[in-house]
Amino acid sequence: MDGGKVASYKIQRREGDAETWVDAGVALELNTTVSGQPTGKRSAFRVVAINKAGEGKPSNSVLAVL
């Protein structure tokens, strides 16, 4: 089902070797800054697009140490 254009993007974070993804923020545009993230720890981030049909498939993840 086609839900039309993307309405927002959910940013998710996973720390270290954890299996659970945690919501880290929401963006209405392609560029955003997510503040208040843990520092000194290895984290993976990914994005999930949301439209009228619901959530899409998660993007590939990116590893970072902040």
Walk me through the topology:
Elements lengths: L7 E8 L6 E6 L14 E10 L2 E2 L6 E4 L1
CATH topology: Immunoglobulin-like
Overall tally of structural domains: 1
Number of helices: 0
Mean pLDDT: 94
How does CATH name the architecture?
Sandwich
Name the helicity range.
under 10%
What summary fits the major beta sheet? 5 strands, antiparallel
Basic shape = elongated
- Give the low-confidence spans: none
Query: Given this structure, which CATH class is correct?
Result: Mainly Beta
CATH homologous superfamily?
Immunoglobulins
Q: What is the strand tally? A: 5
- End-to-end CA span: 38 Å
SSE topology string: EEEEE
Rg over CA atoms: 13 Å
Domain Fibronectin type-III: 1-66
Protein name: Fibronectin type-III domain-containing protein
Describe the 3D structure:
This protein is mostly beta strands. It has one domain: Immunoglobulin-like, CATH 2.60.40.10. Helix content is 0%, strand content 45%. The radius of gyration is 13 Å and the shape is elongated. The N and C termini lie far apart (38 Å).
Main traits of this protein?
mainly beta, five-stranded antiparallel sheet, single chain, 66 residues, elongated, 5 strands, Immunoglobulin-like
In short:
The chain is an all-beta fold. The chain is built from no helices and 5 strands. 0% of the residues lie in helices and 45% in strands.
